[in-house]
Amino acid sequence: MARAGDALEHPLTGDRMVFLKTARDTDGELLRLGFFLKGGGPEAAAHVHPYQEERFEVLSGAARFRVRGQQERDVGAGEAIVVPAGTPHTLWNAGEEEAHLILEFRPALRTETFFETLFGLAQDGKVDPRSGFPGPLQLALIFREHEDELYLAGPPLFVQRALFGLLAPVGELLGYKARYPRYSGPEEEQPPGRGGGRPSAASGATTGGIVVAAVVAVLALLMLRRRGSSSRRR
């Protein structure tokens, strides 16, 4: 489990993160991070935090946001933007200089574990060097585990559940995990998610619908990986 002062760095993107207040510090009410976005970096995949409000405050540099898929907005030093729970959004560095932001998630949920896992895998060289993301089986396990914290803004949620419900068991058979103690500490230390249990892969879809949904979501994941390797906003 993260502690205040712990830092993470992605070796491929150069992005850095420092934990300022953790779930442990705030009884789960808040996660506060210092976030350093490398200049000229790629756009983050559009995503949704279904149960969390996210607040961004820019301390230096500038960040560009797109909320609900609408017009882009630049946020400069001394400015802040709040994204309500359930709102699709994305961001990237609006310039060539490093941008320093403060991120706040309310409530904290298990967001710190999500970041520890992604950054830890990158540090260990277990991500695609072109996209910076883990492979599909590992990614399916992570997204299935952290559906309370976030999901992708593109494919419908039932499509993502179908895909991850199909791929995650294969990943488990091959030894992949949704979280790793070497990155996040023992399981018993983890703060709880919002609800009880993960949704079934068949929730809201017939068997035939699951297959169709899986195909659509595979294409969406491929687009995500391609965007991570080639998208660069100026």
Describe this structure in words.
- By secondary structure, this protein is of the alpha+beta class.
- It folds into two domains: 7-111, Jelly Rolls (Sandwich); 112-230, no CATH class.
- Helices cover 29% and strands 24% of the residues.
- The chain has five helices and eleven strands.
- The strands form three sheets. It has a six-stranded antiparallel sheet with strand order 1-2-3-10-5-8, covered by helices on one side. Strands 7-6-9 form a three-stranded antiparallel sheet, with no helix packed on it. Strands 4-11 form a two-stranded antiparallel ribbon.
- It is globular.
- The model is unreliable at 195-216 (pLDDT under 50).
- InterPro entries: Cupin_2, QDO-like, RmlC-like_jellyroll, RmlC_Cupin_sf.
- Pfam families: Cupin_2.
- How far apart the termini lie comes to 36 Å
Mean pLDDT: 86
Instruction: Characterize the biggest β-sheet.
Output: 6 strands, antiparallel
Overall structural class, as computed from helix and strand content, comes to alpha+beta
Secondary structure: elements and pairs:
Layout lengths: L6 E3 L6 E6 L9 E7 L9 E2 L4 E8 L1 E6 L4 E5 L3 E4 L5 E5 L5 E8 L4 H13 L12 H10 L5 E2 L4 H17 L7 H4 L22 H24 L4
Antiparallel strand pairs: 1-2, 2-3, 3-10, 4-11, 5-8, 5-10, 6-7, 6-9
Protein name: Cupin type-2 domain-containing protein
Organism: uncultured Rubrobacteraceae bacterium
InterPro entries: Cupin_2, QDO-like, RmlC-like_jellyroll, RmlC_Cupin_sf
